[in-house]
Amino acid sequence: MKNYTSINDIDNIDTWISEAKEIKENPLKHKALGQDKTLGLLFFNSSLRTRLSTQKAALNLGMNPIVMNVSGDAWGIEFGDGTVMNGNTAEHIKEAAAVVSQYCDIIAVRAFPTLTDKAKDESEQVLKAFVEYASVPVVNMESATGHPLQGLTDALTISEHAKTSKPKVVLSWAPHVKALPHAVGNSFTQAMQKMDVDFVITNPEGYDLSPEITKDTPIIHNQEEALKDADFVYVKNWSSYDDYGKVLNTDPSWMITKEKLGDAKFMHCLPVRRNVIVEDAVLDSDSSLVIQQANNRTYAAQLVLKKILENG
Ligand code: CP
């Protein structure tokens, strides 16, 4: 594997989950693999889990991680081709990616969407520019439309906690005060489509994810109906896709409560706003898998880095 930019880069999710479980059992087994190799982590946006778990994964493989907050700390990067750079950008991605490639054996990038320009976001301008102009492999640490490290983590977590051979998994929209990206919902949907699970999505009218992502996954606009007999309820807010980036609905009745959850396990990628997305009683109970999910971020990242190092 050269790059990991999307859940579509996973050839067989069951094999990948098995490999991630092996890594989790013995995280330092491949410590020699990354010796004298450098992972560069470039953040255009904030992070807690991705930043720390990906560094931890690199350290477990013997790599040296180096981190940069690009927004604010680096020169403003220009992505447009042929731009007369007499504005706020001081360095072109062609030079920036080539230079960072000399310092790093793998480059990992986080760059969120604008949520104002659908075409630009769907073009994955930042991630694709790094893939094009870097001479080393590129890992997506959450881009405009996908969060494939999170999606792989979530698949691993469901596999670990499933009590039946084909669990029912529900992706439920929940309210939020701000406009949030579609990336987590998109990658979770793509991961579930690759797994042998009974998968449905529930969200209010006007909040359907891109049909290019949801494909034939059932979308149920009645949350109560969707949650029936669920084994896993994965909760996430996203802004409208049709009315791109807009907050159309903050209806608190979509918040997940202990009563709605029933016997199902609760999942969320974190960070989560308590008593907006989900009530305290869920997060503070054994039904919540959010801490286990965050732990699995290390092993998902480690598997991805290991596959890239083995390919190199
Ligand atoms: N889930 C996740 O990606 O967390 P961070 O934004 O803190 O990295």
Automatic annotation (TrEMBL):
Residue sites binding N(2)-succinyl-L-ornithine per the record: E142, H176, K236, R273
Alphabetized InterPro entries for the sequence: ArgF'-like (IPR043696), Asp/Orn_carbamoyltranf_P-bd (IPR006132), Asp/Orn_carbamoylTrfase (IPR006130), Asp/Orn_carbamoylTrfase_sf (IPR036901), Asp_carbamoyltransf_Asp/Orn-bd (IPR006131)
Any GO BP: L-arginine biosynthetic process via ornithine
Coiled-coil regions listed in the entry: none
Pfam families: OTCace, OTCace_N
Catalysis: reaction(s): N(2)-succinyl-L-ornithine + carbamoyl phosphate = N(2)-succinyl-L-citrulline + phosphate + H(+)
Subunit note: Homotrimer.
Family indicated by similarity: Belongs to the aspartate/ornithine carbamoyltransferase superfamily. SOTCase family.
Name of the featured protein: N-succinylornithine carbamoyltransferase
Species, as recorded: Pseudotamlana haliotis
Taxonomic lineage: Bacteria, Pseudomonadati, Bacteroidota, Flavobacteriia, Flavobacteriales
Encoding gene (name): argF'
